[in-house]
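Thread: sanity check for a docking pose with flavin mononucleotide

Original post by kr_44:
Hi all, I'm comparing my docking run against an independent structure prediction. Below are the sequence and the ligand SMILES. Could someone generate the full complex and paste the structure tokens? I mainly care about where the ligand ends up relative to the chain.
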Amino acid sequence: MTTKIDAIKARLSIPAFAAPMFLISGPDLVIEACKAGVIGAFPTLNARPVEVLEEWFKRITTELAAAEQENPGKVAPWAANLIVHRSNKRYGPDLNLILKYKPDIVITSLGSPEKVAARVHEYGGLVFSDVNNVEFAHKAANRGADGLILICEGAGGHTGSMSADTFIPLVRKFFKGPLIVGGAISTGTDIKHTIKAGADFAYMGTRFIATNECQASDAYKQMVVDAEADDVVLTPYFTGIPAHFLMPSILAAGIDAFDLDKPRGKISFDEEDNMGSTWKDIWSAGKGVEDIHKVKPVAELVAELKQAYKS
Ligand SMILES: Cc1cc2nc3c(=O)[nH]c(=O)nc-3n(C[C@H](O)[C@H](O)[C@H](O)COP(=O)(O)O)c2cc1C
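Reply from moderator J.T.:
Ran it for you. Here is the predicted complex with flavin mononucleotide included:
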């Protein structure tokens, strides 16, 4: 296990993931991140219908194999994010395609990694599970996760509430595997602090929204660039679970800010009962927006992150 993680680290330009983001991470972002030496990841549900997922997997594996020929040993592994929540009707078909295309890493969210881990381990892949409290970290560690993704305060999407400095030592008491830590990490200096705090890898979502290759609309990217940390609000209103969203997108949808502390929607990955506009028109981002000032190509962003990380 240690050697597998060391082998992954040796292929990276910075120890970081472009974390999976619902609707907006796709093959362009994954391929460019991996070519730049950052682990690229996307939720399998972003490819709709399932036939599109096979096209994406084919394209990612083909283009990364070609990049590896050109730049041996310097192309980062890639990761598929499988939502294991019971509302995800694509779980079975998507897992079958994962077993066919064998991503180096499978990230499980919103449920036990146990069944996925058993299958992914058969082809030699690793399973990392995202967790936002110690109880879930214990459960994932006991159910076959090779690595734990600790979602800390300030994260985009369904955030955690602990600081990395608090969460990492609590998990280190019982888990010896790799720790991937996310939450408002936007700069090379942030990555440096995260690694110093005991993480093996930084997990960055919001920073990668403001890239040319992200599938978000131009208006969404610009809102991330324009927003300050206070424009990101924590609310259970849309999914029933506290998540961070950009206030200007909520106001633009005509939703009354006073309603935001009450849950209205429920979390669901079933397209039929998905709350139509959540994620599509109500845009998520983390508190790391504060340090994002420009939309740029992934290669340029990673070069900048690397420079600050190494300095
Ligand atoms: C728009 C958006 C959508 C997200 N969707 C998912 C998702 O589908 N699956 C998942 O595991 N995490 C999802 N996340 C969480 C990210 O993978 C990651 O944990 C988070 O972005 C890290 O915090 P940061 O945004 O402050 O960098 C999402 C985050 C954002 C901003």
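The CA atoms of residues 274 and 294 lie 31 Å apart. Hope that helps with the comparison, let us know if your pose agrees.
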